[in-house]
Write a structure and sequence with these properties.
With about 160 residues, this protein is α+β, with helices and mostly antiparallel strands. The protein is built from 4 helices and 8 strands; from the N terminus they run E-H-H-E-E-E-H-H-E-E-E-E. The chain has one domain (about 5-155): Histidine kinase-like ATPase, C-terminal domain (Heat Shock Protein 90), CATH 3.30.565. The structure holds adenosine-5'-triphosphate and magnesium ion.
C-alpha cells in the first residue's frame, strides 16, 4: 500500500506524540521498520558515542519512488488508512503511527535514506531536513543496486 496521510481524527485517537528519547529507541524503531519491510537480514552500526552515526540496513522491499517524499512526514504511513484498519493489523505490523522517521529527521542534523525497490536500476539516496522534506535526491549506482537494500542513517542526533 502506498504511503498516505492519516485522517486527523485517526491521528488524534492514536495520540502520535512518540519521540525518540535516546539512540536505542531510534534504533529499535528502525529495526521495526526493517521487519515490517519484510527484511530477513538487518545490520546496525553505531558510533562509539551513540549520537554521531547510526545506520540500520535491511534487505526488505524498500520504499517505492512515489512514497519517498512522504517517508519522513509526520502521520504518513503505508500500514493503515484509518482506525477501522487498526482492528486488522494486530500482529502484522510493528508500527503504524507514521511518526518514527519524521521524529528521527527532526532530531538529526542529517537523516539519509538510501533505498531501491525491485525493478529499479539504480538506488536513490535522499537527505531529509528537520522538517522531513527532501533536501537532496541522488541516484546511486553502487553495491546497493545489486540487492533490495534500504539504509537509514542518522547523523548527529540531538545536535
Ligand atoms: N526500512 C524500511 N523499508 C521499507 N519501508 C520503510 C522502511 N522504513 C520506513 N518505511 C516506510 O516509511 C513509512 C514511514 O515510516 P515510520 O517508521 O515513520 O512510520 P510507520 O512505521 O508507518 O509507523 P511508526 O511511526 O509507528 O513506526 C512506513 O510506513 C513505510 O512505508
Ligand atoms: Mg515505523
Amino acid at each position: 500500500m502506498p504511503i498516505a496521510a492519516l485522517p486527523q481524527t485517526t491521528v488524534r485517537v492514536l495520540g502520535s506524540s512518540q519521540v525518540h528519547t535516546d539512540s536505542a529507541s531510534l534504533v529499535k524503531e528502525l529495526i521495526d521498520n526493517a521487519i515490517d519491510g519484510r527484511a530477513t537480514t538487518i545490520s546496525v552500526e553505531i558510533s562509539s558515542n551513540t549520537l554521531d552515526d547510526i545506520r540500520v540496513k535491511d534487505n526488505g522491499h524498500g520504499i517505492a519512488p512515489n512514497d519517498r517524499s512522504l517517508a519522513c512526514t509526520m502521520h504518513c504511513t503505508s500500514k493503515i488508512r484509518d482506525l477501522d484498519e487498526l482492528r486488522d493489523i494486530g500482529g502484522r505490523s510493528l508500527g503504524f503511527r507514521g511518526v518514527a522517521l519524521a521524529s528521527a529527521a527532526e532530531m538529526s542534523r542529517c537523516l539519509t535514506i538510501a533505498t531501491r525497490i525491485e525493478g529499479e536500476e539504480t538506488a536513490a539516496e535522499l537527505k531529509f531536513d528537520r522538517q522531513g522534506q527532501i533536501a537532496r535526491y541522488l541516484k546511486i549506482r553502487s553495491w546497493l543496486c545489486r540487492a533490495h537494500i534500504s539504509l537509514v542513517k542518522s547523523a548527529h542526533l540531538f545536535r
